[in-house]
Protein 1
Amino acid sequence: MPVSQERMQSALGEIMQNSPIQEAKYAQIITTQEQRDEAAMPERLMIYPRQLVTFPNHPFYIRDDEDMSKLKESIMNSGIRTPIEVIRTGEKNERGEDTFYIVAGHRRTHVARQIFPEDHRLEVRIHNMTMDEAIVAMTESNLLTRENILPCERGNALRMEIEARERISGRPENGTVAKNVKTRDLIGETYNMTGRNVQRYIRLSYLIPELQNLIDDNKIGMVTGVELSYLTAKEQHDVWDEMELTAFEHYPNKAQAVAMRKLSKAGTLDMDAVVDIMEVDKPNQIEHVRYVPRKEDLLEQIPAYLKPEEWKAKDFTDFIGKAIAFYASSLQEQHAQEIADRMQEANRNRKPWERSI
């Protein structure tokens, strides 16, 4: 004879003695899978924009650019069609209302605050997540859906995600980096990137904010930024101060950044060294003289294995320009390296108490 649900509940209640842990197990026994699935679904709620809080250390900028204008026009015409994804902060605002961290929907919230009246409510979907799970969801939703992501935005987001994933799964034991490398590769697969490329972007997150802005403004190349990221915060501020003192007439290039990184590793990169390296003229800062030799003379210099006869109909102007630029860049890199070597040698010849600390 089947046992009724009431009798089962009574019998189990006596055995479990109102234990919270046992009650949870009991709930799994007496509820259907459909009921459990429904209970696990995110709660939907209508709230005011003032109850929404920017996600802590949100790595993506909110820019009033062309994309934001298009989003604003879309919302004005059709409203916000998908709920804002949030988690509870556990805190209340000055009006005593519950507040929520935005997991996905920062740009939509920004527009809503601009165009809707204060008493306009937005639909949100409240997720039951840990903060680390929310970080992963926040970074994924942005990296997979945003079109124009700046290098340091991507780097900061990838670093947040990889650190959150490591906390969720547990950090590598005995100081090994195997799990870290594996995590980079897995994240790279998600975003169609190699693990090595993921690491390059993550290095940008170690730059001070001032240098990150120069990367995102295309004043400094990404490869140069990666090299500068290995400098200490003080050394990076010295680089920034030197650029600021010269009214940003000079920005470091890869060769200069490599030279500074080498001195930093040796512990000898002080402000004087930064100035000396930054004062090395780069190819684009040198006055150029236009000279195009005769094609007949150039053809005589082309080795036989490059088949000179095939070059007769080609325009050498672009080729010559690239060759000169490459040679000038090599000379500049060599000069910067010579400065770094001389400074290291000078530091070794100092008395112990005179050396840079």
Protein 2
Amino acid sequence: MPGNTPTGLLPTGLARGTTPAPGGSNSEAPGTEVSSAPGPAGQNGRASAPHLGVVPAGRAESAPGRVESAPGPAESVPGPADTAPGPADTAPGARRGKPANRRRNRTWFRIISPLVVLAGWQLVSMSGLISQQKLPPPSTVFHTAVTLITTSNAAYGTLQGAMLVSLERVAIGFAVGGAAGLVLGVIAGLSRLGENSVDPLMQMLRTLPLFGLIPVFIVWFGIGQLPKILLIALGASIPLYLNTFAGIRNVDAKLAEAGQSLGLRRGETIRHIILPGALPQILVGLRQSLGIAWLALVVAEQINANAGLGYIINQGQAFLNNSVIFVALLVYCGLGLLTDALVRLLERRALAWRHGLLDH
């Protein structure tokens, strides 16, 4: 008799997970497994017989209360949408567009603060807080600059001619001094003998005031171009030497040991490990050396100069024309900012592998 439960309404074979075979015998369905896992209450299905359940192929019965199934085709076989790269992943501009935009934005942001200073300068001069004779407004300075560019004055010459003369002096002096500082920094950084031979002399030279060397250089080298270039070279060599020396000494010694264990000779270790490791510090010294070179130019052009930005400053002082002095000073600032931007560009190219704190 069928029972009162829902399974009691089905044939006995179906209720037990078997299919009735022809002839009345019950046989298990093909592709099935018989499970005798205990039930929730620690009983095996019924009170007196183990529970026989049908487990389809590809599925497994796990511990009580949890059923795990084998992944189906939709889970195990990745489709084309999962593996094929989309246009956003393959387009080169998708990866390079945002960093390039950020660099352009940073370039524009660097111009904001000088413009704010110029606007404040104009307001202070026009308001009368400071006499325009002492602090001419930027508008007057701009008008003076246009006059110096378009007119060849007997007292000042032309602004563009003075810029070319000063640029030539800075370029030659920085090339000589920078090369000397770099070579001496490498020599002192790579050996104790070089450090003991070179470092004391460089530490003494960096404490000498450039103004104090002017009369000595005039006696030694006269009043031509040579003492001016030597003063610029001396000023530019010190920062590059100090940063090169510090950069080499700060390279991790374990990197050099790893290179030697790989069979690198000393020259290859210097070329492939030490100098690339010291490059960030060397570039910092390069920026500082360029700044010192422009400062040394002002000092050097005090030595009987008849052309250059320093000559324009001396003539403006002689004729009590502060606007001319401010024109030359602003040209110094602009040229210093331009050379610093060039070094920053070189730093970005040479240190493309490095990601700093604010590069994300």
Protein 3
Amino acid sequence: MNRLFRFIFTISLITVMYFSIVPAFDIPNIAALSFITDKLVHLLIFLHLSLIGLLCRFSLSDLFLLISIFSFGLLIEIIHFYHPYRYFEIADLAANLSGIFLASMLFSLKKDHYRY
């Protein structure tokens, strides 16, 4: 099962990076998202990345994994700063962090529930 989660995690990272680099107007319906909807999409993407990453059970601490996922989002935002068709947004980082935090809480509840 770990192999499947790791495959999904890797494909997810590649997909997120790809769609973060192409101009937003090249992605159907993305340019038309409202501010709130865009941030909700960020939250859901990083919720997904974090949950799948935690399910991979890498041989590193959960905290280090989640910090690495946040750093991945920060790297994307830094790329956006220099990208001619994208923008660096602190609100995106906040939404990413919210998704990571929510995943951490859900994963913690899951671990507590199945501990016995």
Protein 4
Amino acid sequence: MLKGEMMRVRDLQQILGKFTDGEKGTNISDCPIYIETKDGYMEEVRFIALEKNKLIGSPEPARIVLKHENLQRFRSHTYTGPKKNHGI
């Protein structure tokens, strides 16, 4: 997968397999999963949903959606802030 490309389930499976080195029951297997919001907050993934597209013939017949609560407990250490548009 190249940077900027949409991630697919198979990509996520491959990445998670590399994290755990194919071994179940490692410390990494017990790590919580977070997503970084547009404001830079780390939010715990609370639910994963499979949503089917209702448009017939859509190139995206279904999608996996990671859902979180908006708790804003802490910011990501890699957050760089919003990109500012100075009219240039």
